[in-house]
Amino acid sequence: MKFKKKILCIGAGYVGGPSMAIIAYKCPDCKVTVVDINHERIDAWNSNELPVYEPGLDKIIKKTRGKNLFFAKDIEKQIKENDIIFVSVNTPTKTFGTGAGMAADLQYWEKTARQILENSQASKVVIEKSTLPVKTALAMEKILNSAKGKIRFDVLSNPEFLAEGTAIEDLENPDRVLIGSHETRSGLKARQELVDIYSKWVPSEKIITSNIWSAELSKLVANAFLAQRVSSINSISALCEKTDADISEVAKAVGMDSRVGSKFLKAGIGFGGSCFKKDILNLVYLCSYYGLKEVADYWESVVKINEYQQDRFIANILRSMFNTLAGKKICILGFAFKANTGDTRESPAIYITRKLLMEHAEIIISDPQALKNAASDLAGVKGSIKYVEDPYRAASGCHAIAILTDWDLYRKLDFRKIYKSMVKPAFLFDGRNIIDHKKCFAIGFNVYPTGKPALSHFKTENNS
Ligand code: UDX
Ligand code: UDX
Predict the structure, then answer these.
(1) What does the angle CA 157 – CA 121 – CA 76 come to, to the nearest 5 degrees?
(2) Residue with the nearest Cα to atom 15 of ligand 2?
(3) Which three-class secondary structure state does DSSP give residue 8?
(4) Whose CA is nearest to atom 21 of ligand 2?
(5) pLDDT for 133-151, tens place per residue?
(6) What average pLDDT score do residues 254-275 get?
(7) C-alpha distances in angstroms, 141 versus 109, 113, 175?
């Protein structure tokens, strides 16, 4: 079969893999190839056990793989053969030198740009899919167009807004697709090529175009705004715990104002995931770089509240369990940074587990998808850690349960059965407010929700 367009994606991660699968699925006349320096990852994409867990992804892969979607290892050859190249390599926070702990580490991006240049024999459109600091495209363009010749590279910014756990849904029905380009003749032509691809399944009013810097900045700001809502509600949850207010009632009342909106107002143990913290710190670095100290401080406080929320959760466990956790068994229900994913990057569970281990608690971790990642996150950490997939077996014999991920299956657990198998007094810390607190209190648990008064059987404890 002759394909109309040949598309390559460098980086077969959480973003590159699913987003290319959808392009292949929606555009059968395009050949889509995904490459990665990590050959094990490519092997996994070609196997029955995909490297990324996303509801609905395996179905799409089955329909496209080997037809117009290919996972390959020969990066250089693929660069030569494709005309449109997405770059979705990781851009972690820099750990060294200027901007360490804040700025984005762009070494993989730059290396990839040089690799594209060295292996191109014809003009290409290069698309930023990774989240990058504003003006990265400029640097990339300089590298790509440094060899004087007939070959031209047009750089576009097409940030991805998918959320993990709902990636397929988000890709099939996006709120918007954003494409940034230079407003020159060739920039606009390149932009149109990408618009044509998305038009196959995204309504035209949802495909928005902008200048390249606006597109780059919009991605950082979108994530910063979302994270800021989580920190805002979490900050108020602390106040609710001190008063008789209930954070769910407050969030409902506030969110019903259509100007505010109801989404992203769930109090919990703080946000995790590979993007929020990294992107905010990136924004903070940019603001500081441009001398905007007050703006940088404002956004940095979103990260500070996130850390504060996790520390509060740990302090609450310690205080409620008579200020000692040594030798006590604590069952962690959920290690992924959110439900419906096996991803544990920046998961609050990592920090919370480490802190509990420092108190010499014995930890039993349960999660339906993330146990492999949890074991690798905690490799080398001192203390007693067990991994048990079945939540009933995990909780049996424990002094306390801490719910750290909002997996639906935890809502449906038989807490009466669990209570019977635990050491008494049994404690339940609901870091995600997903279970029926009154029911669990009636069963016998001492229940500690987030942002609501505790339900304790100890007469002396101040429930507020
Ligand atoms: C990545 C970025 O981290 C994020 O900023 C952006 O918004 C989307 O792309 P993600 O897909 O979640 O997010 O990252 P990850 O799962 O780590 O995948 C990146 C892949 O790139 C890895 O498989 C890595 O092996 C690959 N890679 C990295 C290359 O193929 N070449 C490189 O030079 C570096
Ligand atoms: C986010 C953005 O939503 C997405 O648009 C972007 O492309 C990548 O970053 P993701 O990190 O996959 O996606 O998950 P998201 O659903 O945004 O959740 C992030 C974190 O915030 C999770 O730890 C989640 O549990 C937490 N969260 C979210 C809350 O604590 N409360 C909420 O109300 C919403």
Answers:
(1) 75
(2) 163
(3) strand
(4) 271
(5) 777 888 888 888 887 677 8
(6) 97
(7) 12, 9, 29
The pTM score is 0.94
| Distance, C-alpha 130 to centroid of its chain | 13
Catalytic one of 9, 275, 331, 440: 275
Structure-block tokens of residue 287: 């603001």
User: How is 222-289 classified by DSSP, letter by letter?
Assistant: HHHHHHHHHHHHHHHHHHHHHSS--HHHHHHHHHTSTTT-STT---SS---SSSHHHHHHHHHHHHHH
Q: Which tokens sit at 357?
A: 């281990």
364 and 329 in contact (C-beta within 8 Å)?
A: yes
- For the question of residue 9 being annotated catalytic, the response is no
Query: Which tokens in the block code for residue 448?
Result: 């500690």
- Better-scored residue on pLDDT, 360 or 131: 360
pLDDT of 38 over the 90 cut = yes
Interval between CA 334 and ligand 2 midpoint (Å): 16
Burial class (CB in 10 A: 0-12, 13-18, 19+), 98: exposed
89 lines ligand 2 (CB under 6 A): no
Q: What is the pLDDT of residues 421-434, one digit of tens each?
A: 999 999 999 999 99
pLDDT at 271 over 80: yes
Would you state the structure tokens that stand for residue 435, as one six-digit string? 């279970």
Alpha-helical (H) ranges within 359-407 are 371-377, 391-395
For residue 146, give both structure tokens: 């440094």
List pLDDT tens digits, range 176-199: 999 999 999 999 999 999 999 999
